[in-house]
Design a protein that fits this description.
about 350 residues, 12 helices, elongated, two-stranded antiparallel sheet, about 10% strand, alpha+beta, about 55% helix, 4-stranded antiparallel beta sheet
C-alpha cells in the first residue's frame, strides 16, 4: 500500500494579497516607529573616534630557526614578537584593566573644541559629558531614593588608592575603560591606541596622553633592572670616592707633618697610608668604570618608539549611526507587523 506524500507549498501571492489587505496597519506602525526612533536617536550624543599607531623597539632573542620558519608560513613574524621581556607586547592591552594605570589619566587637562569645557579628565567624565534627557530624569529619581551605603567609603585613609574605590570613582574608571582601548597586531607588533569621546579635541588629547603614558610604562619596565643597577653603582661609587678622598687627606696631612723625619716607624706608617690611599683609589676607579657601563646599559635598554600614525582631530562623528538605526528599526517593525498579520498562516 503506497502512502501519498503531500508537500505544503507556500503561496507567496496569497501572502502578498493578505498583506495588502492589511496595509493600513503598516501606515500606522511604520510612521509611528519612524518618529519615535528618530526622536530617540537624536537625543543620543554624537561620538568621535581617533587612534594612534606606534611601533616600539623590541629586544629580539631569536630571529630565525625552525619555529620562525614555520610561523612565517602561516603569516606570523616571530622576529617581531620574540623578546627577553617578561611582559610581551601582546600584554600591553591588559594595562587598561589596571586601575592604577587608568587613574593616571584623571589629571590630564582637557579642553573642548568650542572652548566651553576646560577641566581635568576626571571631572569631565564624571560631570561634564552630554547625556540623553532620560538619563537626567533617572538620576534625579535615584537621588530622591535613600542612597545605599558604600562599603568602601572612608576606607582610603584620606589618600587616593586606585585599588580601593568608592562607587562613583569606580564608575569613572569603567567609563574610561569603555572609551579607551589598546590593541596589538600579532603579526607586526604595532600598538594601536583608540579613543572615543563626545568632543573631537578631547578625543585627540586623551589619545596623545595615553600614548605618552604607554611609552613611559614600556620605558620604565624595560629599563627597571638597568636603573636599579645604576643606582647601586652610584651609591658604591660615591662611597668609594668619599673613602678615597678621606685616605688622601690623611696621607697628605701625615706626609706634610713628617717631611724631615727619618725614623723607620714613621716612614712605615707613611707607606701604609699611601698603600691604603692607592687601594681606595683603585676601588674608586673600578667602580667609576662600572658606573659608566651601567649608564650605558640604561641607554641601551631604553626603547625607541616610531609613531606610524599620529592622532588627528576627527572631523566627522562616528556614532551613533542615525540613518542605519532608523532604517533597522523600520525593517524590524515591518517584519513584526507582517508576522502579526500572518500569524494564522504560521499556525
Amino acid at each position: 500500500m503506497e502512502e501519498n506524500k503531500q508537500q505544503e507549498v507556500i503561496d507567496l501571492r496569497a501572502i502578498l494579497r493578505k498583506l495588502r489587505q492589511r496595509k493600513r496597519l503598516f501606515f500606522i506602525t511604520l510612521p509611528t516607529v519612524f518618529v519615535f526612533a528618530s526622536l530617540y536617536i537624536i537625543c543620543i550624543p554624537r561620538t568621535y573616534d581617533t587612534n594612534i599607531r606606534l611601533a616600539p623597539e623590541i629586544s629580539n632573542q631569536m630571529s630565525g630557526g625552525t619555529l620562525g620558519s614555520l610561523a612565517s608560513m602561516v603569516g606570523f613574524d616571530l622576529s617581531n614578537m620574540e623578546t627577553t621581556d617578561a611582559i610581551s607586547p601582546m600584554l600591553y592591552p591588559d594595562l587598561m584593566e589596571d586601575n592604577g594605570f587608568v587613574s593616571k589619566l584623571f589629571k590630564i587637562k582637557v579642553k573642548s573644541a568650542d572652548g566651553e569645557i576646560s577641566a581635568n579628565y576626571h571631572d569631565y567624565i564624571k560631570d561634564m559629558q552630554k547625556r540623553p534627557w532620560w538619563g537626567g530624569i533617572s538620576e534625579w529619581i535615584i537621588s530622591l531614593l535613600p542612597a545605599p551605603k558604600d562599603p568602601m567609603a572612608g576606607k582610603t585613609g584620606g589618600e587616593y588608592n586606585p585599588y580601593i574605590l568608592s562607587k562613583p570613582e569606580d564608575d569613572v574608571i569603567k567609563k574610561i575603560q569603555n572609551f579607551v582601548a589598546i590593541s596589538t597586531d600579532k603579526k607586526t607588533g604595532v600598538i594601536t591606541v583608540s579613543v572615543t569621546d563626545q568632543d573631537p579635541l578631547i578625543c585627540k588629547t586623551v589619545a596623545d596622553s595615553v600614548c605618552s603614558m604607554l611609552q613611559a610604562f614600556i620605558t620604565d619596565y624595560r629599563t627597571n633592572k638597568a636603573r636599579t643597577d645604576l643606582a647601586y653603582y652610584q651609591k658604591l661609587s660615591a662611597t668609594a670616592k668619599q673613602e678615597y678622598e678621606q685616605a688622601r687627606r690623611l696621607y697628605g696631612n701625615y706626609a706634610d707633618a713628617n717631611t724631615d723625619v727619618v725614623l723607620v716607624s714613621m716612614r712605615a706608617k707613611q707607606e701604609d697610608l699611601e698603600n691604603d690611599m692607592q687601594l681606595k683609589f683603585n676601588t674608586y676607579t673600578a667602580l667609576s668604570t662600572q658606573l659608566q657601563q651601567a649608564k650605558a646599559k640604561v641607554q641601551e635598554r631604553t626603547p625607541a618608539f616610531t609613531i606610524l600614525k599620529g592622532a588627528a582631530v576627527p572631523i566627522k562623528a562616528t556614532g551613533p549611526k542615525r540613518m542605519i538605526f532608523v532604517l533597522a528599526m523600520l525593517f524590524l517593525t515591518f517584519l513584526a507587523t507582517s508576522a502579526y498579520i500572518l500569524k494564522d498562516e504560521f499556525k
